[in-house]
From TrEMBL:
<feature type="transmembrane region" description="Helical">
    <location>
        <begin position="75"/>
        <end position="96"/>
    </location>
</feature>
<dbReference type="Pfam" id="PF10328">
    <property type="entry name" value="7TM_GPCR_Srx"/>
</dbReference>
<feature type="domain" description="7TM GPCR serpentine receptor class x (Srx)">
    <location>
        <begin position="22"/>
        <end position="199"/>
    </location>
</feature>
<protein>
    <recommendedName>
        <fullName>7TM GPCR serpentine receptor class x (Srx) domain-containing protein</fullName>
    </recommendedName>
</protein>
<feature type="transmembrane region" description="Helical">
    <location>
        <begin position="162"/>
        <end position="182"/>
    </location>
</feature>
<feature type="transmembrane region" description="Helical">
    <location>
        <begin position="127"/>
        <end position="150"/>
    </location>
</feature>
<keyword id="KW-1133">Transmembrane helix</keyword>
<dbReference type="InterPro" id="IPR019425">
    <property type="entry name" value="7TM_GPCR_serpentine_rcpt_Srt"/>
</dbReference>
<keyword id="KW-0472">Membrane</keyword>
<feature type="transmembrane region" description="Helical">
    <location>
        <begin position="42"/>
        <end position="63"/>
    </location>
</feature>
<keyword id="KW-0812">Transmembrane</keyword>
<dbReference type="InterPro" id="IPR019430">
    <property type="entry name" value="7TM_GPCR_serpentine_rcpt_Srx"/>
</dbReference>
Amino acid sequence: MVNLGVADSCQLLAQASAGIFTLCDSSFTIYVNKVAGGVLQFGWMASGPLTLILAVNRLFSIWMPVAEESPRLSVPYKIALGVSWLIAVVFFASYMTPYTAVLYFPEQFAWNYDNGPWSEFISSCELYGMFAVFTLCGLIYAIIFVRMYRFRMQASHSSRELRILVQAVIISGYTSSCLITWHTYQYFLPDTKITQFCLNMMNIINPSINPILYLMLNPFV
């Protein structure tokens, strides 16, 4: 959850810069815009694999509760975290090249890829890679729900696990909806400023879901 919080913070930082761009009706220089877009995508591309790790963690905690405390999981867990951040770094590095970038367009209230020679390829990698990740998350959560239904856990343990599970499922589901709408909105929504504004608001809310759900599902914190 901490790593996911860092990824969410990167996205919120970039979205804050978009607010400044909008108020000033300018993105200042292309370099500032590229860095802001790179930070946004850095957090976004890290959040996908981290969400999958969270799903796998929930699967282990439900299927084999003792595994959650087992030190044997620490090394694979650290490797998975390292790979997640490495993926984000690779995408960030690509956005810093002259060949592709995610830029904020104040007049459209939206982030979008530029017309660089790599943009279509990088966009496709993002879409299909993240779609595969969230599909796996969906399958894992389906397995978890079946497991919980067939083998009822003790009430005290079940309540705690259920809160964490609900939080993880909502995060995964909402993030998936952001991915799909951002890449395919032109097929079912009018391409207007209002549409772009609403899509951007969805993406702003996305990194805020984690702390909001934590406070809602843990009222005594």
